[in-house]
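Task: sequence design from structure.
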């Protein structure tokens, strides 16, 4: 399912997508990613 969603979003937006789960996010990187994330 993960790759299906990833490929679907890349196709939809016509650009590379970084797709991760919130649990996989390292705490020290969270502020930087929060500044750029887009909820879909």
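Answer:
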């Amino acid at each position: 399912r993960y790759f299906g969603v990833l490929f679907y979003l890349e196709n939809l937006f016509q650009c590379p997508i970084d797709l991760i789960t919130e649990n996989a996010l390292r705490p020290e990187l969270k502020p930087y990613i929060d500044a750029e994330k887009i909820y879909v």
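The longest helix spans residues 2-13.
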